[in-house]
């Protein structure tokens, strides 16, 4: 594989072909895949209890820069072409699967947190409805005993003595950045920019990521609970799902915090659905996704108006864009992600101007925050979300991220309150 000058690639690929075996598994209906997940390099992609978890590393690629998607996709094509696969299950996510997390920015990574990674686990558990399966992955001759790794699953301990501090900017500083962005928008430089901030959690002892994953999966079952290579969260936003020639993208933009009072929240939901500021922000995001997917689709459905998605902590304006992919034989789900990223929902409009402004004024390195995260199979089908409501974890430190779409009439104080609401899922998941 040849990489361009703006690419940095590191691979761990067995010389021998990978041998992949998938068998059907009997699981009790109430069994949680997370309860079966060992601590050894865990990966997770779950929604409503369905999805994939895995452990160990059979192969991986680390890359960064503008070619990060191309490098990973080329590596995956080569790996799958040489693999020996036998599967007794015909479900999305069976057979050979890779989990990925990609940096938000095209800039070369300055550290591991900014690297883009595609990982093939040694052991994968999957479930879809009433069907469950076990996949083992190894080089030739190395399959023995891999499934026994699941016997090592333990109950993760709760985080100990967690405290929170401001990240790169405190609240006042971040509101000043928002005000500057509003000024740039009103001056005609751009229409929208998404600005994020961080919050740092520190515990007395190293944190087992499986603890917050369990909490997030329980509290936010309608979101996609994920963990890949140190970034975890429960994202409500799906960049793209590609399955059997059909493509779906869930676009979120426009947010209001819930109060916990059902009657009050219904009133707020109606206000959100009529808010010109939020509808404007949402329109930019939907338009950017539809424009990016259009070249790959023979037909598309883009609803005229959004619906209100109710989550435990916030409500969003949401639109599900769907289409029929005409080039699925040659274009993988990861290549669709590359075409979509960064959408207006995480960057802004126009995207090049917005991302340049983010780099200038946001005051922190996003790393993989707001980048694509998900999985892909050997056929190129897969599910990729946006790493929102997310955090990076290293030892006893967790860095939480939250962002807001800024438009002409955004109020800095209201945007700060919105980020505080978006911190809630991960923040609460670190408690006992």
Measured by DSSP, the beta-strand proportion falls in 35-45%
The backbone outline, from C-alpha atoms, is globular
| Average of pLDDT | 92
Oligomer: single chain
CATH class: Alpha Beta
Query: What's the N-to-C terminus distance?
Result: 47 Å
Number of strands: 24
By CATH, the architecture is named 4-Layer Sandwich
Task: Walk me through the structure.
The protein has 432 residues and is α+β, with helices and mostly antiparallel strands. The chain has a single domain, classed as Anthranilate synthase (4-Layer Sandwich), CATH 3.60.120.10. 25% of the residues lie in helices and 35% in strands. The protein contains eight helices and 24 strands. Strands 2, 3, 4, 6, 9, 10, 11, 12, 13, 14, 20, 23 and 24 form a 13-stranded mixed beta sheet that branches. Strands 1, 5, 7, 8, 15, 16, 17, 18, 19, 21 and 22 form an eleven-stranded antiparallel beta sheet that branches. Strand 15 (238-243) and strand 16 (246-257) form a beta hairpin. It is globular and about 60 Å long. It starts with 6 loop residues before the first strand and ends with a helix.
């Amino acid at each position: 594989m040849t990489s361009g000058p703006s690419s940095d690639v590191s691979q761990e690929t067995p010389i021998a072909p990978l041998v992949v075996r998938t068998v059907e598994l009997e699981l009790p209906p109430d069994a949680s895949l997370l309860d079966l997940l060992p601590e050894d390099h865990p990966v997770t992609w779950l929604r409503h209890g369905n999805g994939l978890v895995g452990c160990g590393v059979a192969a991986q690629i680390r890359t960064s820069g503008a070619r990060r998607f191309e490098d990973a996709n080329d590596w995956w094509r080569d790996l799958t072409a040489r693999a020996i696969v036998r599967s007794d299950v015909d479900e999305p996510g069976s057979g050979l699967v890779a989990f990925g997390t990609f940096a938000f920015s095209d800039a070369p990574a300055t550290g591991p947190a900014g690297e883009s990674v595609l990982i093939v686990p040694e052991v994968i558990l999957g479930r879809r409805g009433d069907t469950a399966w076990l996949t083992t992955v190894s080089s030739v001759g190395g399959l023995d005993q891999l499934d026994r790794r699941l016997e090592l699953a333990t109950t993760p301990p709760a985080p100990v003595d967690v405290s929170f501090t401001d990240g790169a900017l405190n609240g006042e500083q971040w509101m000043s950045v928002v005000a500057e962005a509003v000024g740039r928008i009103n001056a005609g430089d751009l229409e929208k920019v998404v600005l994020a901030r961080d919050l740092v959690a520190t515990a007395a002892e190293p944190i087992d990521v499986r603890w917050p994953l369990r909490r997030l999966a329980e509290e936010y079952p309608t979101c996609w609970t994920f963990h890949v290579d140190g970034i975890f969260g429960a994202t409500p936003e799906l960049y793209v799902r590609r399955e059997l020639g059909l493509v779906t993208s869930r676009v979120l933009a426009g947010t209001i915090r819930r109060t916990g009072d059902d009657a009050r929240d219904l009133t707020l939901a109606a206000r959100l659905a009529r808010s010109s500021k939020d509808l404007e922000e949402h329109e930019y995001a939907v338009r950017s996704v539809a424009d990016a997917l259009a070249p790959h689709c023979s037909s598309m459905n883009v609803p005229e108006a959004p619906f209100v998605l109710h989550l435990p902590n916030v409500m969003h304006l949401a639109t599900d864009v769907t289409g029929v992919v005409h080039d699925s034989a040659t274009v993988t789900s990861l290549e669709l992600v590359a075409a979509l990223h960064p959408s207006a929902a995480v960057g802004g409009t126009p995207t090049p101007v917005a991302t340049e402004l983010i780099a200038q004024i946001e005051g922190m390195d996003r790393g993989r925050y707001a980048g694509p995260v998900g999985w892909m199979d050997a056929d190129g089908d897969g599910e990729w979300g946006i790493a929102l409501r997310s955090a990076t974890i290293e030892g006893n430190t967790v860095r939480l991220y939250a962002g807001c779409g800024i438009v002409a009439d955004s109020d800095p104080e209201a945007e700060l309150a919105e980020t505080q609401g978006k911190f809630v899922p991960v923040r609460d998941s670190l408690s006992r």
